[in-house]
Amino acid sequence: MRPRVEEVRIQGLGVIDEAVLELSPGFTVVTGETGAGKTMVVTGLGLLFGGRADPARVRPGADKTTVEGTLRVDPAGRAAQQVLDIGGEVEDGELIISRTVSAEGRSRAWLGGRTVPVGTLTYLAEDLVAVHGQMDQQRLLHPGKQRAALDRYAGDELLKPLRAYEQSYKRHKQVGELLAELTTRARERAQEADVLRFGLAEIEKAEPRAGEDAELKEEAERLSHADALRGAATTAHTALLGDPMSGPEAVQDAGSLVGTARAVVESVREFDPVLGGLADRLAEAGYLINDVATELAAYAESVEADPARLSAVQDRRSTLTGLVRKYGVDVAGVLDWARRSAARLTELEGDDDRIEELTREHDELTERLTEQAGELTRIRAGTAERFGEAVTGELTALAMPHARVSVEITRSAEFGPQGVDEVELRMAAHPAAPPLPLGKGASGGELSRVMLAIEVVFAGADPVPTFVFDEVDAGVGGKAAVEIGRRLAKLARTAQVIVVTHLPQVAAFADQHLVVEKAGDGSVVRSGVVALDREGRARELSRMLAGLEDSELGRAHAEELLSLADAAKAVV
Question: Can you tell me whether residue 158 is helix, strand or coil?
Fold first, then answer.
């Protein structure tokens, strides 16, 4: 089952207040008087499939534009799977898409009942619809668009080589930029290397150790207060064990006092176990006093006032402070800077080797790109010939029997993201005319037919389920208009075609005819979009032909057009 658009609801868009379009699977035309809102139908479809949101299109007095579409899709097809992958729903092959645009420019989108980025609608539309507004003819004149059109026609034959080229091009660009940086910044990198070498040499000469700054600080404090430390230790020792050189009048030391207390308690401990326990604790206190006093004596002997050592410690601390000021918050930070700088210096000193390696890779990539670009050119050249012949054949059917479309491919000197090919569509309006770029060789009406011819060609090579055209027949009339209607009818055999037209010759070929009616106040209400029956079609075609719905001559001509179209469609 081919996907198609079943229904579109539009609210608050341009002159449209509210409109409902029920679309047939074949060829549907939308007609109406100037200003009735025909183009807004195409604009609404464009919004539905991710088109640019323009808040100026919101109907005056409305707070937002809303477009909702119901699509029929294959539940097992790619479009349905894309919706399911993002958490949306497809019920019985029916997919609901919705888009709103506020008067302030905010845009929101829903797909299968789930809020999605607007870009998701654009991605989905690639497999579902091709919307052609009046500006698409001008876009076709851009060289990049013409190359994209040719590549699209080439299809799978070009796709794999193009992907391989794009990967090589991306790496080639990265390597080229890195090479340019390495060579143009050689002076700056050399200066950076010199700074790193100086710092590493300074640190290496000082040979700092982790934690050395804390150790030196402690030693400096001890040396600076050596006399006070020794005096305190000696005084404490005397207080605990006494001074052997003092006379009998000396104050008793702590050891003697504890010993006296222990002796008194020991003499009566046998009379009370509690007192015996206290005697044991006094014994322990005596042992502790002796131990502490011994260590105090040893400490007092170890402490020496050493001015030379103190000077050396202060000099070392000054050296480390200088390193910390330059390279880190402490000695550990200095050592970390040295490790990182050594690695960076190794990288900088290896630039020459790196440049040589990158140059070799760049040359290899250039050679590979040259081969891959040549393959792309070969495929495009073959495709260009087939494409030109196919479009020319379609133009013959569109009442341009002498026109010939060709594709000019020239190679640029520089590699580009899609190769080295510059593609230009040219047209010779008659055998004696030289092939000229489309913008110079085709009039407005001819350009419309060229675009239609290209879409018809694409429909055979890369079919899209739904085509939407806004006045693709602009600038043409008469026999050419009849032929455009015939080709659109042919396209509708394999795809859903929706066309906004002002030409009765095109409208006559439609399978379904919708007319947008303008209300008295210039707006379009729900009932303003009407599906016409055979009689209604004849009346609308008469209006389009003669400007008068009830003109007998116009009605006769309209009936003739409808009969002609019916006969033509029977053999399309």
Answer: helix
Q: How many residues does the chain have?
A: 572
Q: How far is CA 292 from CA 128, 251, 287, 520, in A?
A: 95, 20, 9, 113
Give pLDDT, residue 446.
73
Separation CA 270–CA 275 (nearest Å): 8
**3-class SS at 287?**
helix
> What is the three-state SS of 356-425?
HHHHHHHHHHHHHHHHHHHHHHHHHHHHHHHHHHHHHHHHHHCCCCCCEEEEEEEEEEEEECCEEEEEEE
Domain boundaries, the chain: 1-141+462-532, 156-372, 533-571
Could you read off the pLDDT of 475-531 as tens digits, one per residue? 667 777 888 888 888 888 888 999 988 889 999 999 999 998 877 655 555 446 888
Q: Which helix (DSSP H) or strand (DSSP E) does residue 539 occupy?
A: helix 534-546
Whether 521 and 50 have beta carbons less than 8 Å apart is answered as no
Map tokens 């190769």 to a residue: 419
Residue linked to tokens 């043409």: 476
CA gap 514, 63 in Å, rounded: 27
CB 100 within 8 A of CB 64: yes
Within 10 Å of residue 8's Cβ, how many Cβ atoms? 22
Closest CA to 37 of 544, 506, 538, 500: 500
In 3D, which of 325, 380, 62 has the Cα closest to residue 206? 325
| Measured distance CA(367)–CA(374) in Å, rounded | 11
12-41 pLDDT, tens digit each: 888 888 888 889 899 999 988 877 677 788
User: 128-155 burial by CB neighbour count: b if 16+ within 10 A, else e?
Assistant: bbbbbbeebbeebbeeeebbebbbbbbe
Contact residues for 29 (Cβ-Cβ < 8 A; gap 6+): 498, 499, 500, 501, 506, 507, 510, 512, 513, 514
DSSP tally for the chain: helices H, then strands E:
20, 15
User: 444-461 and 143-154 helices cross at what angle (nearest 10)?
Assistant: 30
Q: What is the 3-state secondary structure (H, E, C) of 413-450?
A: EEEECCEEEEEEEEEECCCCCCCEEHHHHCCHHHHHHH
CA atoms of 499 and 477, how far apart (whole Å)? 16
Residue 511 buriedness (CB in 10 A; 0-12 / 13-18 / 19+)? middle
Q: How far is CA 372 from the centre of its chain?
A: 27
Report the Cα 79 to chain-centroid distance in Å: 22
pLDDT in tens, 347-392: 887 777 788 888 999 999 999 999 999 999 999 999 999 999 999 9
Return the CATH fold of 1-141+462-532. Answer: Rossmann fold (3.40.50)
